[in-house]
Amino acid sequence: MHLPPAAGGWWEVGMALLEVRDLRVHFDTDDGVVKAVDGVNFSLDPGQTLGIVGESGSGKSVTNMAIMGLARGGRVSGEVLFEGRDLLKLHTSELRAIRGKKIAMIFQDPLSSLHPFYKVGDQISEMILAHEKVSKKQARNRSIELLRLVGIPKPERRVDDYPHQFSGGMRQRAMIAMALSLDPAVLIADEPTTALDVTVQAQVLDLIERLQQEFGTAIVMITHDLGVVADIADNVLVMYAGKPVEVADRRTAYYGPHMPYTWGLLQSLPSSGAEHTGERLLPIKGLPPSLIHLPRGCSFHPRCPYVFERCTREEPELLPADPNQPDHLSACHLSLEDKQRIWQQEVVTTR
Amino acid sequence: MTVQREQPPAGRPASPGREPLVRITGVKKHFPITQGIIFQREVGRVHAVDGVDLEVYPGETLGVVGETGCGKSTLARLMCRLLPVTTGTVEFEGQDITNLKGNALRLLRREIQMIFQDPYSSLNPRKRVGAIIGDPFDIHGIADGADRKKRVQELMETVGLNPEHYNRFPAEFSGGQRQRIGVARALALRPKLIICDEPVSALDVSIQAQVINLLEDLQEEFHLTYVFIAHDLSVVRHVSDRVAVMYLGKVVELADSRRLYAEPKHPYSGALLSAVPLPDPDRVGQRQRVILLGDVPSPIDPPSGCRFHPRCPKAQERCVHEEPPLERKASGDLAACHFPLEPGEDLAKARPGIEQEPEASTPTAGAG
Known about the structure:
The complex is a heterodimer.
Chain A (H helix, E strand, L loop, with lengths): L17 E12 L2 E13 L4 E5 L6 H8 L6 E9 L2 E2 L5 H7 L4 E4 L3 H4 L6 H12 L4 H14 L5 H4 L9 H13 L5 E5 L7 H18 L2 E6 L2 H7 L2 E6 L2 E7 H6 L4 H8 L41 H5 L5 E2 L8 E2 L5 H12 L4
Parallel strand pairs in A: 3-8, 3-9, 6-7, 7-8
Antiparallel strand pairs in A: 1-2, 1-4, 4-5, 9-10, 10-12, 11-12
Chain B lengths: L21 E14 L5 E16 L4 E5 L6 H8 L7 E6 L2 E2 L5 H8 L2 E4 L13 H11 L5 H14 L16 H13 L5 E5 L7 H18 L2 E5 L3 H7 L2 E6 L2 E7 H6 L4 H8 L6 H6 L30 H5 L5 E2 L5 E2 L33
Parallel strand pairs in B: 3-8, 3-9, 6-7, 7-8
Antiparallel strand pairs in B: 1-2, 1-4, 4-5, 9-10, 10-12, 11-12
């Protein structure tokens, strides 16, 4: 018997929790149009973690600002489907009900994202009071519980501290407490550990993972640290100059990527083996392009060691290169044989 | 190209005949905390650097790692006399420079230069690149006019900048290029020692690799000695011959970089290394990560005994009362620990033998 195709709700089979389709964010400036994000697609299921990797200016943060309706001054097009609704078409007041409650965000710098004049507890309570009909007392108790949950010692006392009385790691924990206060379905973390020491970073990543297991939150993790992604992401999206250039699951992204830019990123890291390292690092030559005057064809071609004539002429589409791996997408004109040969012979050997 | 550097010995006594370039002995730096407006009473002290002995040998790269606030940047500033020491001595090429003043200090500055972390705030935005790199020549009266311009352009070429950009402002350069300007400025006076304070932390990975390669090339070409401070442990391992691990103003381990990464002796080094995220999903899965509890205690009132004991997974009663000296362990490296890690020991399974402070205890996850 043939079932009719599922129609309607996001919860039905085949519909993701969050789906971004052909998202573009362009900014008009005096010098020209900055194409900060130019055609991003991804989908996210409940409980999943998507890692978005790329250098400064590759559009990773703007993508997520646009999802939250925070890309001010930009021309946004495309679709952001959340629970079946297009967030880009919602009115500000409708969006406000989703922001924080359904989709929460953690920012990079915990000092500048907490208000220095207000007590940490009040800032968390404010979030709860804005979305739910509870008394101040109840909100405060919830704040204490949340601070306890994220590992702040003596939360009933620390709830009345100001942000400057918290250390960097504690502030980031307070931000996580705030983000999780309403049990959101999606958590967008924009470089949540970049400003932290490795030991504190380990604590925070551990916390995020533990909370994800407990609440089944879907996470979008934006980072430039390939180590963090290897640690916590299920799928990896690599961005370059505003465009996604490779999408793969975590193991494929590290052990069989198809795009020369991903190769370059992995090669430019100091090797992680215990053996020393008299060897030179292999940086990607050149600089990221200006987003106003993108190179013709593939925007990575001026820096690509494997460039050929077609790359300068024709922009590659994000497609599966290997028919056996339909979920592994890459935007590159090299043939599958070339990709596999170069990865095996030239890239793996240098790591 | 593979550059194999001579491996200097890890500690002091085993280095006969090799004169250190820099030797610091018993150096402390305390910053007073004062209260009151007219009569400034001292109410406390920040023990930023609290008794460090360290030697830097010519031609080597000494890495310094540790968390924020462990005193690594203060140590670097003491080494190049940007800050006066509270007690202790700093020697450079056998000469005591602890109390140098005036002209003698200025002459010293030619030998020791610094590269800073933030390529945005360490360059004067109103000065042209030529002036920024050429200023050391003016200050030290070495070259002016056409000669100065020629030298600056040579330097720009050495660090991989286009010499035609002589008249541009820093704002016209990218982060990586700005860091190259900082390198050229440090190089201008042909120093013997360059102190790199987080030189690549602000850069993207691909650019980071370019700058590290440049620093390595320059070391070879100009026989430079580096003190390399960074919180990125994989970068430190890549560049360093020896690594000093700092915790709360003290060096807790000083070891050959290969050995430190393979077999850390101090539990803090072990925890620090296990916290580094690896760009290798399979190895991440295998590894037991040691999560340190709590935060670094305040350097105003550091813990008694071993300063790491409130967070240490191996802490015992002895650690609370007795401060371990930095001494040679079996491998020949220095570590300050009563119960150093054995090769192959799993730090993640260790349990402390003392009650640790409530501040540092794990919270019970029960809310939600």
